[in-house]
Design brief:
Layout: H1 2-10, E1 29-36, H2 39-54, E2 58-65, H3 67-79, E3 87-91, H4 94-100, H5 120-124, E4 127-128, E5 131-132, E6 135-140, E7 142-147, H6 148-154, H7 164-174, H8 195-205, H9 222-238, H10 248-256, E8 262-266, H11 270-273, E9 285-289, E10 303-308, H12 316-326, H13 329-339, H14 350-354, H15 356-361, H16 365-373, H17 398-413, H18 419-437
Parallel strand pairs: 1-2, 1-3
Antiparallel strand pairs: 3-10, 4-5, 6-10, 7-8, 7-9
Helix pairs in contact: 1-3, 8-9, 17-18
Length: 447
Amino acid sequence: MKISLRRIAMGAVATTAIGCATTTAHADATITIATVNNGDMVIMQGLSDRFEQSHPGIHLRWVVLEENTLRQRLTTDIATDAGQFDVLTIGNYDAPIWAKQGWLSPLDMPASYDVGDLLKPVRDGLTYKGQLYGLPFYAESAMTYYRSDLFRKAGLTMPAQPTYAEVRGFADRLTDKAHGIYGMCLRGKPGWGLNMATVTSMVHAFGGQWFDTAWRAQIDTPSWRQAVGYYVDILQKDGPPGATSNGFNENLALFAGGHCAMWIDATVAAGSLYDKKSSSVADSVAFAPMPTGSFTGGPTWLWSWNLAIPRTSHNQEAAKQFVAWATSKQYVQLVAQQKGWVAVPPGTRASTYASPEYKQAAPFAGFVVAAIDSSNPNGQTKAPRPATGAQFVAIPEFQGIGTQVGQIVASALAGQTSVEQALRRSQSVTDRTMRQAGYSASGAPSP
């Protein structure tokens, strides 16, 4: 498996070397932090001078990248022992896989850190053989955001548990392209954690899965045709122009700017959408669960962005001090003081959700915890599947497979190919990759 992972990494986009300091534990240390350009991480960077003030001798160097680029660079760096970074921002997909390869340093935290305060589904996703290998900065499930003012004006009522069929009808009613309002916004930018996060959750809801128990791809199937057909159709008819360029950040900006009547995406967006400083529709945002399809109770969506330390870092102790600071209860309090409670990193600590101040500022708080608790990443799809994961498949090869299929699905969304052709091609490339990786009916790669 290690060889397979290195081969995957070497196929990623080449990186530009970023030298990291090789200081000793007794000298000043400069730690290089690679992170994603999401709003919560931007806040972390902006507040990091507080860490440097309280930790004299530790200096921070930031490399902030778009999501796809970050994943490509980190995968290449870690698998080739390049050692460019001291702190990595990785997902709950990466953490156990990379820990198994011996690429990450274990994180034994002192009692004062309060590991038990971390929400269990999030903590479990970062654990390998009983040991933490990442500390969660924020975590999310997914929800349906909608404009209550537009629903009220159209005489519509969002059900307590909407279905995809109901949501489709609402989108048709609410689309007003002449005034720049689109009935539905969804991720269209290709990537295993971008458009395929949305598509995979839809596939599960429509009764499908990526693989059967013999590791044969199940993409060219009725469930996938129904899910991807729905996805392409609703975005082509009711979505914004250029949807294949829209990931999480782009759709967040569209909704906050008043251009989306509905948006199905990560719960982490709620803090920004309810914040009047960043959202023009803060007073009319409402939310509901993710829509359901023909199959309910399966895996939905669970993602966390986490701070981890590669074994190759020459600044292990300094890096550990930073990741502990940035994921601590005290950091949550710092963000609350500086940016307001609605802006604190969500989805990680029980103490955040027990805070009266957070409950008052964040009407979505209880909903988010419930969504994370019910995300069911280890649950079964309608037909048995051979791997875990909510909106991804927890095998090393999925990063490459998901990205390639994401590009094919994006071509169908752009009208360059039909859904049927896209799924046949996706089935073919996925089966080929799995054969080359040595997967067999035994449920594991062949020796």
